[in-house]
Specification:
The chain is α/β, with parallel strands linked by helices. Helices cover 32% and strands 22% of the residues.
């Protein structure tokens, strides 16, 4: 696939997915203190503002009010998924649709989760740079074991992303379009804060 207008800097949006209820953590994991008085969601969102992206948005769920307060000082759009219990697919669909309504000029969207404490602007920029240099429409993150988010999708996949629903997210789309996919190393991407034990281990190892 050859991308149109490949010689200009693409207009990229970053869509953070934060609509879960943190059932395994027992409290909103996005509000956990991480560094320099920053919460987890403040840390990962602030990294987004140090990238080439032209807009940043967050899909919220049951903790919409709490996350709105936590991000009040950030110029970020929040889209509440009132059907968050249907799974990540519904959040991606809502988020992409809402982001395009606000920014129809977007050429690509990066989907990112909010429980990867090592997510940095350098990695997000590397997704964009690899998209430009490789002309691949899907750029995903390669962990030590496995692959996943954050992942960049060119606009040719916007309609497919808006059709997602349920708990699967975009993984099925990535498998289906594997010939169009290229990956970028994210050595610490496998570390996510899903349970209290994960958070305690992260504090002991990295803080």
């Amino acid at each position: 696939m050859t991308l149109t207008n490949s010689h200009h800097t693409p207009a990229v949006g970053i869509l953070y997915l934060a609509a879960g209820n943190s059932s395994r953590m027992g409290q909103p994991k996005q509000l956990l203190p991480i560094r320099q008085q920053q919460s987890l969601i403040q840390k990962v969102v602030s990294e987004g503002f140090q990238t080439q992206a032209i807009t940043i948005a967050v899909v919220t769920g049951p903790y919409h009010r709490e996350l709105s307060l936590e991000l009040a000082s950030y110029p970020v759009r929040l889209y509440q998924n009132r059907h968050w219990a249907r799974g990540m697919g519904s959040s991606i669909s809502l988020g992409v649709r809402s982001m395009l309504a606000d920014h129809p000029e977007l050429d690509a969207v990066i989907l990112a989760v909010t429980d990867q404490p090592h997510l940095a602007s350098t990695h997000l920029n590397s997704l964009i740079d690899t998209h430009i240099s490789s002309q691949r429409p899907i750029v995903i993150s390669q962990y030590q074991e496995g692959k996943g988010t954050p992942a960049l999708f060119y606009k040719s996949y916007f309609k497919a992303l808006q059709r997602l629903d349920g708990p699967i997210g975009a993984s099925a789309l990535i498998r289906q379009e594997h010939q169009q996919v290229i990956s970028v190393p994210f050595p610490l991407g496998h570390i996510d804060l899903d349970q209290w034990e994960d958070y305690q281990a992260y504090l002991r190892a990295f803080k």
